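Weekly sync notes, structure subgroup
Attendees: PM, AL, DS (notes)

Item 1: joint prediction request from the bench team. They want all two components modeled as one assembly rather than separately. Inputs as received:
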Amino acid sequence: MSTEKQLFTISVYTENNIGLLNRISAIFQRRHINIESLNISPSEIEGVAKFTIVVNMIEENVKKIIGQIEKQVEVIKAYYHDLDEIIYQISGLFKIKSELLFEERQIQNIIKESNARIVTVNKEFFVLEKSGKKEEIIELYNELSPFGIMQYTRSGLIAISKDEMKISTLLETYNN
Amino acid sequence: METQTIKNTDKATKTTEYISGSEAIVRCLIEEGVKILYGYPGGAIMPVYDELYKYQDKIHHVLTRHEQGATHSAQGYARISGEVGVAMATSGPGATNLITGIADAQIDSTPMVCITGQVFSHLLGSDAFQETDIVGISTPVTKWNCQVTKAEDIPEAIAKAFYIARSGRPGPVLIDITKDAQIEKFDFSYEKCTKVRSYVPIPKTVEGSLEAAAKLINEAKKPLVVWGQGVILGKAEEAFKAVIEKAGIPAAWTILGASAIPTKHPLNVGMVGMHGNYAPNVLTNECDVLIAIGMRFDDRVTGKLDEYATQAKVIHFEIDPAEVNKNVKADVAVLGDAKATLEAVLPLINSNSHSEWHQKFKDLYAIEYEKVIKDDLHPTKEGLTMGEVLKEINIQSKGNAAIVSDVGQHQMIACRYAEFNKTKSNITSGGLGTMGFGLPAAIGAKMAAPEREVVSISGDGGYQMTIQELGTIFQQKAAVKVVVLNNDFLGMVRQWQQLFFEKRYASTEMINPNFVAIAEGYYIKARKVTKREDLAEAVKEMMESKEAYFLEVCVEKEGNVFPMIPTGASVSDVRLE
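Output from the run, pasted for the record:
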């Protein structure tokens, strides 16, 4: 087991209840662990929420954190993965002055080459959306930045594991 | 995150009654077998108190003098009975005053259900009068908590609360109920909770782990058992005794494991940890197999982790998977309920005696006796020692009393020297180290087991943190025996100041009041002892009293508790002086 810090993605399947975010985030807060990104969404199972949490830690401590998370009454199961074991995406949104779209030819090239998507255009501004790895979104940010970005935001990481996570089977055993 | 779901009970077709949320709360408690609850009324919980008035023939409410007292009393009740203790408070300050007791129950795995009133749901988040986010505040110190804003959700929430509090590794649960939910009427029916999806109270024992554990035990030349409260919580005392007796293994206890087997059991080699006994601490670093049962390798037990039992193979019998490998790496983890796993491992282990190994414990005990115990229990110098008070209590109680201790030097002395014949007899605040725990916990313990002698032992510091609960003792006629070992110091801090801060006694000397007068002010029979020749007779008088009794013993001012493992030192570096 590596003793170097590295990025791990923690997937937590939970009941969809109020207060659980507080309970789970407190586990990290108490141990002074910074959450790099956090996303909560419905999962493939009705009524089951999925937390995707990215942390920079050594593996041994991730295992301990998983234990503490799974100990929570409303947590169904928690897993951790390194980045090679998952397929993941991050989304970035960029708000840019509309006049640049017409006056700066290079911007059009950047949009085309980066595979970014124009979400909306109006007289004042247009919005670009780019999904991919964090580095790709940062690269686009760096390219657009000299022209002036009015607003920029980036989502948390969302991930799907390459290995099967047998939550439905697990829930069936719970129900029996 | 969407709305709260508490759909975890299997709804059978049941007759319903149209009643208020507050009546439902009381009825739910009765359904769960609650006969006594501890609490303090206030605006946001008044409808429930009104119902308690109606149901007072079925459920006895104990008015403590502070909400903290209510939680500690509920803890004392739970610890001696093995049942869930219940505490109730109003919103805002009432609720926040419960927090210390809840945190204490969480770290010591005590089953407790706390019910708090909350402002009307339309006022939530508006900084209304006596509004606090008690669910948010209590989250890190509860096993589970929830807020109920609709009367119809009350029965399922309470059913779930009791199930979670008492199952698996027990713990405290808090339910916050808004005032409108208390007033609102609904069709009431009650179904006990037997399962919560996503919650596995007892983990499955990993296949082969019992055999692997047995193999290590059978091959061990110098095995040592360290047991904790898991043995008591899991009702595994008999199975535990059978295992150590068959394998002939010396067994040492953590502070919360005390009393699971009698103090005088030949295999009982004493307490481990910072103020534990010399032999089990030193020999932890000599054993070849360390068998941890229902304990969590707290830092007060292990000292410096890098040097803790590094030579030993470690077997960990544990109900909470998160405890395995948390502090000490286990070579074999036997997950599950202590009773079930110990019963299962019993036929797999060989009979043994390990007599040479036992002799090592006896030799080290002889050293500890000469250097520490003799002077503690049979002092020849002038000042009274805490140890000799405990010795007198042992003589008078014949080891049958439940000892409820507070936190500090007296606690370590009480745990080191109190003699126990029965399980669930050592009630103390272990993990949180809560000064003020002792007196109210003793009230709960006495009410849960009125047939038992309950002796509360406090220092002058902790006693004054919850001294107002003398009022509860008086009002409830709880025949608790209250002993204060008074050294006019915050003794444990002073000891550290002496040893590690060059005797700079910063803010540890206490100018104390007339404790006897205070007890008598609460109409409690009281006596003060300052001389050795009066001690035995005073303890006898206290123990023979049919009512509550207060005994102050003025002990030597600068007495220290040894052995001691200084913070950050290895267990084998235990100091005897």
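Discussion: Chain A has two domains: 6-84, 89-156.
Action: AL to compare against the crosslinking data before next sync.
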